[in-house]
Amino acid sequence: MEKKITESKQKKELLFSKSEHAAVRIDEKQKAESDAFARDYMAFLNAAKTERKAVKMSVAALEEKGFVPYSPDMTLKAGDKIYVNNRGKAVIAAVIGTTPVTEGVRLCAAHIDSPRLDLKQNPLYEDYELAMLKTHYYGGIKKYQWTAIPLSLHGVVILSDGSSVEVNIGEDAGDPVFCVTDLLPHLAPAQMKRPASEIIRGEELNILVGSMPFNKDEESEQVKLNILNFLYEKYGMTETDFLSAELEAVPAFPVSEVGFDRSMIGGYGHDDRVCAYPALRAILDCENPIHTAVTILTDKEETGSDGNTGLCSSYLQYFLEDLAECFGAKGRHVMHASQCLSADVNAAFDPTFPDVMEQKNCAYLNHGVCVTKFTGARGKSGTSDASAEFVGTIRRLLDADHVVWQTGELGKVDCGGGGTVAAYIANLDIDTIDIGVPVLSMHAPFEVVSKLDVYMAYRAFCAFIAS
Ligand code: MN
Ligand code: MN
To answer: For residue 377, how far is its CA from the centre of ligand 2 (angstroms)?
Structure first.
């Protein structure tokens, strides 16, 4: 009898697949590395709350490591480090490999835009002696989550003379913040009967920015005037200059460790800086790769990847074609031989909301970086669906480097769904698979990830670009 149990136990070890907590798979040294990586990531997240800031920080880090701006007439050789800054909103970095570029590149792609509230082009108004800013939300949000929290304001204003002014207010100690107000519960019975998607409507996401009059003159709109006067004195802008501005309101609170055990990180913008930062770090740490390593941090994923800084545009394709031409090769031959990790977050299983997940095929916090063969919705619509062969390649690669990883779909079949940039990259004839960090409360102002999963994402990107 005893022998039989042992035999089945052995067979189970051999035959069953197993996903487990990363903590049981790592040693003390890796735990320390994971904690150190989390500290660096938290600093990045605090400082890079918008796509423009993420690019600025990435470019500074790349230049410090010897990356130089790329131009198509450059002569390139193995070991060279280059980058392209696409309009201050997206960046491509590359380290030239030792094998011919026709053997393909190792591409990591993540996005650096996150859901937020964008100001409208004519945003400022006064209503009952309060100054407010009209917004149009960016990306998929639960609008009610964006009320009654401190907001900071970031972006640029192009003045009438063409000069550019940077706005950055609400992050530093002593800065004022802004907020969208909500109705008190005492007077909200009617509001609470609205469907959840309308508890706060799009046109109710108005940001409170002032309440004092300019002076004691009997003029109308004194509070609005006071705000405009402040903006004029600080930034040299007038109301018309809002027309040529991009101003983004994001949560003003800093990122924090979460839990008594400090095992998690909570903050704004994990989606998708939690993949972008590890991908950036992987290429910063990359020396003399075999295949040319390319990391792209892109914009506009949250609104469908359209526009010249999003991955539906041709800027990645043009870069790869130019790179190919540097070596007398054809872009399409390079792309055909290339491999891509489309690095974006996945939904983590939430025990409070188990019903949306099929529990044999979803990602769990702390079970490592999540590899997702396909995304999409309603019968795999809108996905590139990586081939079994390519999944096999990535699986062997991660296992060989002892990266803790899991696999998971975004929710139950027909329960919703979502896409990533994977399909747009795969459409360039590049083998592409989704991989990323599981997130709790995705797209909320305060998202949560596990430190070990972030570290495993970094390890996965390092293993991939070294292959
Ligand atoms: Mn994302
Ligand atoms: Mn997203």
So the answer is: 15
CA of 269 to the centre of ligand 2 (A): 9
- Which CATH code, of 2.40.30.30, 1.25.40.10, 2.30.250.10, 1.10.150.530, is assigned to 116-251? 2.30.250.10
pTM exceeding the 0.70 threshold for the entire prediction: yes
pLDDT recorded at residue 2:
57
Identify the three-state secondary structure at position 118. Answer: strand
Q: How far is the CA of 310 from the centre of ligand 2 (A)?
A: 14
Taking the CA of 422 as reference, the closest ligand is 1
Return d(Cα 416, Cα 48) in angstroms, integer: 30
C-alpha 302 to ligand 2 mean position (Å): 5
Decide if pLDDT at 96 tops 90: yes
Residues of the chain with CATH 3.40.630.10: 17-114+268-465
What span, in angstroms and rounded, lies between the C-alpha atoms of 151 and 169? Answer: 9
- For residue 3, what pLDDT is reported? 63
Burial pattern 104-143, b for ≥16 Cβ within 10 A else e, equals bbbbbbbbbbbbbbbbeeebbebeeeebbbbbeebbebeb
Q: What pLDDT score does 419 carry? A: 87
CA distance 110 to 90: 10
Which CATH topology does 17-114+268-465 take?
Answer: Aminopeptidase (3.40.630)
Q: For CATH 2.30.250.10, list the domain ranges present in the chain.
A: 116-251
Find the 58 Cα to ligand 1 centroid distance in Å: 18
- Does residue 417 have a pLDDT over 90? no
186 pLDDT band, cuts 50/70/90, is: very high
For ligand 1, a single-atom ion, the residues with CB < 5 A are 271-272, 344
What is the overall mean pLDDT for the chain? 96
C-alpha 41 to ligand 2 mean position (Å): 18
CA of 358 to the centre of ligand 2 (A): 20
Q: Which ligand is nearest to the CA of 420?
A: 1
Instruction: Write the single-letter amino acid at 32.
Output: A
d(CA 289, ligand 2 centre) in Å: 31
Q: Once rounded to an integer, what is the mean pLDDT over residues 156-183?
A: 97
